C-alpha cells in the first residue's frame, strides 16, 4: 500500500562514483507504516563507511533500486498501529536496519524501538551525524567491553582511529566514563580534532604502539577499541593490552587481502577478551533487547542537552540529492575524513 510519491536517491547496480548512474535521483512510492513502524519525514542524513561497503557489494543489476543510508533525523509523519513510544510531530533520530530500505529518501520507515528522541539543543543535521556512530561506540564501550560510567580514574583505553565518526564520539564517551583516552591519529589536523574531542594523548597508528606509549609513561592499556584494519593492528594490540584486558573491534577481516584468519593466539598468554561490535545486530536478528537502542539514543540526547557530549558534525551539504551524495561518498572514500558529513533538506 502506498500514498503518493517521494524523492529518493538510489542505484540499480554498482558503478564508480564518477558515473552519474552510481547514485541517481528517483521518484518512488511513499510507504505506509504498519506494526511498530514510524513513517518519518527525513530532514537530514549522514554518510558512513557502511554506505560505501554496501554500495560496492551491490554489484548486480536489479529490478528495484537499492536505497542506502543508515543515519537520519526527521519528524514523525505517521505511526503504525502498534506504536507506543512516539506520535506524529515528534522529532527523532536513528540509524535504522541494513535489512531494510535506507534513509536516503524523503520518507522512511523505521521500527520505533531503534529510534530515539532528538536532542532538543541540536538541529536536524547535527543530530543526523550521531546515531550510527554513537550506537556503535556506546554498545562497544558499555555492552561489549563492560566499562561502567564511573570509577575508571586509573583505567585507560586506546582508540585506534580516533578522528573518524565512531572514534570522535567514542573519545567523548570514554572521557565521560572517566577513562584516560589515548587516540591514534597520524596527521596534524586529525591529532588536533582527536584532542578537541577529549583525547588525553595521541599516538600514530602507522608506527609501533609500544614505544610511543612508553614515551608517554604508559606501559599497557586496559581496553582497546579498534575502528579500522583489525588484522593489521593485532600484533600491536597484543603487545600493549594489559593482561586480562579487553579488545573490541568493528571491522571484520578482509578475506581478499588476508588469509581470512586473525592470529588470535597472540592474545592467549594474556587471557585477553576479544569481542566484535556490529550495531545492526539487534535490528538484523530482531533481538529481544533491541529497545536498548531506543534507550541509549534517549540517554545520549539527554547527555547532549546537558552539555556533556557534543555533535561530531564537521561538514554540511545542501540539498539532499544524488550529486551531493556522490560528493559525500567520494570524500568519505579517501579514508581521511574527520568527524561526520551530513546532507540536509530535500
Automatic annotation (TrEMBL):
Keywords: Cytoplasm, Metal-binding, NADP, Oxidoreductase, RNA-binding, Zinc. It is found in: Cytoplasm. InterPro entries: ADH-like_N, ADH_Zn_typ-1, ER, GroES-like_sf, NAD(P)-bd_dom_sf, Quin_OxRdtase/zeta-crystal_CS, Zinc-ADH_QOR/CCCR. Residues 21-343 form the Enoyl reductase (ER) domain. Homotetramer. Belongs to the zinc-containing alcohol dehydrogenase family. Quinone oxidoreductase subfamily. This is Zinc-type alcohol dehydrogenase-like protein. It comes from Paenibacillus harenae.
Amino acid at each position: 500500500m502506498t500514498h503518493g510519491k517521494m524523492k529518493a536517491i538510489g542505484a540499480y547496480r554498482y558503478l564508480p562514483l564518477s558515473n552519474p548512474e552510481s547514485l541517481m535521483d528517483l521518484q518512488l512510492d511513499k510507504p505506509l507504516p504498519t506494526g511498530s513502524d514510524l513513517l518519518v519525514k527525513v530532514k537530514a542524513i549522514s554518510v558512513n563507511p557502511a554506505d560505501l561497503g554496501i554500495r560496492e557489494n551491490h554489484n548486480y543489476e536489479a529490478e528495484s533500486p537499492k536505497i542506502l543510508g543508515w543515519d537520519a533525523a526527521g519528524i514523525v509523519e505517521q505511526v503504525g498501529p502498534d506504536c507506543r513510544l512516539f506520535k506524529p510531530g515528534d522529532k527523532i533520530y536513528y540509524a535504522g536496519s541494513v535489512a531494510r530500505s535506507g534513509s536516503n529518501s524523503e520518507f522512511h520507515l523505521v521500527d520505533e524501538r531503534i529510534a530515539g528522541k532528538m536532542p532538543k539543543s541540536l538541529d536536524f543535521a547535527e543530530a543526523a551525524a550521531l546515531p550510527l556512530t554513537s550506537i556503535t561506540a556506546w554498545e562497544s564501550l558499555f555492552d561489549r567491553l563492560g566499562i561502567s560510567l564511573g570509577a575508571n580514574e586509573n583505567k585507560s583505553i586506546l582508540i585506534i582511529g580516533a578522528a573518524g565518526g565512531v572514534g570522535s564520539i567514542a573519545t567523548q564517551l570514554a572521557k565521560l566514563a572517566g577513562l584516560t583516552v589515548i587516540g591514534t591519529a597520524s596527521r596534524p589536523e586529525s591529532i588536533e580534532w582527536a584532542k578537541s574531542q577529549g583525547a588525553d594523548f595521541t599516538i600514530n597508528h602507522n608506527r609501533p604502539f609500544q614505544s610511543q606509549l612508553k614515551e608517554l609513561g604508559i606501559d599497557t592499556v586496559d581496553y582497546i577499541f579498534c575502528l579500522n584494519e583489525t588484522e593489521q593492528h593485532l600484533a600491536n594490540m597484543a603487545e600493549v593490552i594489559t593482561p586480562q584486558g579487553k579488545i573490541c573491534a568493528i571491522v571484520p577481516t578482509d578475506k581478499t587481502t588476508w588469509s581470512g584468519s586473525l592470529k588470535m593466539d597472540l592474545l592467549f598468554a594474556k587471557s585477553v577478551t576479544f569481542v566484535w561490535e556490529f550495531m545492526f545486530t539487534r535490528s538484523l536478528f530482531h533481538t529481544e533487547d533491541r529497545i536498548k537502542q531506543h534507550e541509549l539514543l534517549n540517554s545520549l540526547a539527554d547527555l547532549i542537552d546537558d552539555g556533556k557530549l557534543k555533535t561530531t558534525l564537521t561538514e554540511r551539504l545542501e540539498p539532499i540529492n544524488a550529486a551531493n551524495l556522490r560528493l559525500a561518498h567520494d570524500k568519505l572514500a579517501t579514508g581521511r575524513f574527520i568527524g561526520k558529513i551530513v546532507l540536509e533538506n530535500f
